[in-house]
């Protein structure tokens, strides 16, 4: 069970962590501890210390199972839910499910949305999720060797070149609909989606006799074809 912040929707494994976190949203408390990287203010030195790790990239808490590292201990505790096999958060737009609500939110932003609302104040690059912006900001706080991506024109540290290119490949592959159903012609993004589609749509012996004159996709009901033409091809 996760305890979720009612203000920012952040999840915590223990109630005491949530209660401590809620102080962050208390605007009546004085914030006198300033970050030397981004000038953000914090109420306590421990909060500032943890925040600075987002700039330095320090990750001292490591998972014993997959060895992934995290900047905070509670991040590691949240991550451990992934290895439990429990996936209670289902995507409404595809069959994928997730162990954490934050993972679902990230999935929706990366795969099902083109919105990039997090903007770098230095070079104006835009990002779909805040953690990508946070990682990106480190390139503006160092004079180490940089590499500029030819795809998005974003500059990253030379050592992060392959990780950045892998991000492009992951997002692009997620958006490609490369698995086509041989029965109705519907295209899906992943093999497991196609398998699920075949089970749900075609195991009952349905006859796909209604064919779209534009894209040749087939339907087993005339009203489905009519809706398809209206929604996809704008044919009334």
Walk me through this protein's architecture:
The chain has 236 residues and is α+β, with helices and mostly antiparallel strands. It has three domains: 3-84, Double Stranded RNA Binding Domain (2-Layer Sandwich), CATH 3.30.160.60; 114-175, no CATH class; 179-232, Double Stranded RNA Binding Domain (2-Layer Sandwich), CATH 3.30.160. The chain is 36% helix and 14% strand. The protein contains eight helices and 16 strands. It has helices spanning 15-21, 45-56, 73-80, 101-111, 130-137, 161-175, 191-202, 222-232, and strands at 3-4, 11-12, 33-34, 41-42, 61-62, 69-70, 89-90, 97-98, 118-119, 126-127, 146-148, 155-157, 179-180, 187-188, 210-211, 218-219. The strands form eight sheets. The protein has a two-stranded antiparallel sheet. It is elongated. It starts with a strand and ends with a helix.
């Amino acid at each position: 069970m996760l305890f979720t912040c009612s203000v920012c929707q952040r999840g915590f494994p223990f109630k005491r962590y949530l209660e401590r976190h809620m102080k962050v949203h208390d605007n009546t408390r004085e914030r006198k501890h300033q970050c030397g990287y981004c000038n953000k203010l914090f109420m306590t030195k421990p909060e500032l210390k943890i925040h600075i790790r987002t700039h330095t990239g320090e990750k001292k808490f490591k998972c014993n199972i997959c060895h992934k590292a995290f900047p905070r201990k509670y991040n590691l505790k949240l991550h451990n839910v992934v290895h439990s096999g429990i996936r209670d958060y289902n995507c409404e737009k595809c069959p994928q499910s997730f162990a954490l609500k934050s993972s679902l939110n990230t999935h929706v932003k990366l795969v099902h949305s083109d919105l990039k609302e997090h903007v770098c104040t230095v070079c104006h690059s835009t990002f779909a999720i805040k953690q990508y912006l946070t990682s990106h900001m480190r390139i503006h706080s160092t004079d180490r060797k940089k590499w500029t991506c030819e795809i998005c024109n974003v500059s990253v540290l030379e050592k992060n070149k392959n990780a950045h290119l892998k991000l492009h490949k992951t997002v692009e592959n997620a958006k490609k609909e490369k698995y086509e159903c041989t029965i109705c012609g519907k295209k899906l993004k992943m093999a497991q989606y196609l398998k699920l589609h075949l089970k749900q749509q075609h195991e009952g012996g349905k006859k796909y006799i209604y064919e779209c004159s534009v894209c040749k996709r087939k339907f087993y009901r005339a009203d489905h074809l009519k809706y398809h033409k209206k929604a996809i091809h704008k044919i009334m």
